[in-house]
Amino acid sequence: MSVRQVLRTHPVLTACVGYVVLRAISALVIIWVGQHAYHHPSRDYFGVATQWDGQWYRRIVDHGYPATLPHRPDGSVAENEYAFLPLYPGLIRALMWATGGSFEVVATTLSLVLGVAATGMLVVLLRRFVGPAAAAVAAILWAASPASPTLQMAYTESLAMLLLGALLWALTREKWLIATVLAPVVGLARPLGPPLIVAALVAAWLRWRARADRPLLRGERIRIVAMVVVTALAGWIWAAYVGWRTGVRNGYVLTELAWQFTDKAHPFGSLLSQLNRVVPTPVSVAIAVAVGLGILALALGPWAQRLGWVLRIWVVAYLGYIAAAALVNASVVRYLLPAFPLAVVLIGAGRARPSRRQGARAIGWCLAFVILQVVWAWGVLRGPGFGGAP
């Protein structure tokens, strides 16, 4: 049986095997980086894999969330556990209790296993649009992306990608009740509220537009409205809880802004600030606009035509949200993981007439991504590993 036949007949299994192989490569990179870590010259695999955000999750697992927000000497809110949503540490705590395992083993194993499930979920989602072989290849390419080592670290990436893939599958398949249930769960795993609202509205609009061919009955209309409302509210569940628990109405927002050392949100502020360090303001704005136009072209151009409007708009909405709201640092690399539909574009499978060289493109991109994994890990994971985020 040829490789193409294997991809067509066993796409989920093939992609999951590819994910495991890539995680083995990432494990070697992590071990190598740990041997050269500064301040910790003998850090082992688990030491590297549970640093940075992992140390915040360890605090949450061991001590829970604080009753009040901590403050810096100047009175501003300091970095704290409320920036890290509760679903992932809750699963770790439950598994530690059930197995008696340590935080290091449970957290990294949980991420690794969830990453396998996420890879399979992405294949199930994408194969409807581009076929099983291209879906498997795109999922493998996603699993090779530069920050993919976080999929086996004590990070929420694996859990968030599994839930995101399932929610987008529900939206594209018009499974409104499933989407309604999943939206709050996603909201407790990763702060993806604004772009998910956009994706939900697009899915609802597409169903409304098709009502002439497929009559939209009253029951389905109710389910669609419920889905949109719940998705819109899901992104505020954690923020509302933080406000109630701490007595500070905007405590979650202040906590997120603490990493930027400000108490006021400035859309695109971090992005432009980083660019302004290198080039003058007019040039930085021009660069930001050019990047935005490039994203629009990638997601909405003919090379993404087969992906469907929900996934294409998801990419635009998500990357726009990241550019507007995220702290621009080395974490931006891992923030690209939810933009997984772009893997389809990179291998040439998104056109109306897909490229015949998808395999060659995928191999080339995978090799480049693995090299970038090494570069990213070397630049980020050798650090002290707490207080910020890579």
Concise structural overview:
With 390 residues, the protein is mainly α.
Give your account of this protein's structure.
One of its GO terms (cellular component) is membrane. 66% of the residues lie in helices and 0% in strands. The chain has 19 helices and no strands. With 390 residues, it is mostly helical.
- Low-pLDDT residue intervals, each spanning 5 or more residues: none
Beta-strand content estimate: under 5%
Query: What series of H and E elements makes up the topology?
Result: HHHHHHHHHHHHHHHHHHH
> How many helices in DSSP terms?
19
Average pLDDT: 91
What number of domains?
A: 1
Alpha-carbon distance between the two ends? 42 Å
Shape: globular
| Fraction in helix | 55-70%
| Cα gyration radius (Å) | 21 Å
* Biggest sheet layout: none
Alpha-beta content class:
mainly alpha
Number of strands: 0
GO molecular function: alpha-1,6-mannosyltransferase activity; GPI mannosyltransferase activity
Pathway: Glycolipid biosynthesis; glycosylphosphatidylinositol-anchor biosynthesis
Main location: endoplasmic reticulum
Keywords: Endoplasmic reticulum, Glycosyltransferase, GPI-anchor biosynthesis, Membrane, Transferase, Transmembrane, Transmembrane helix
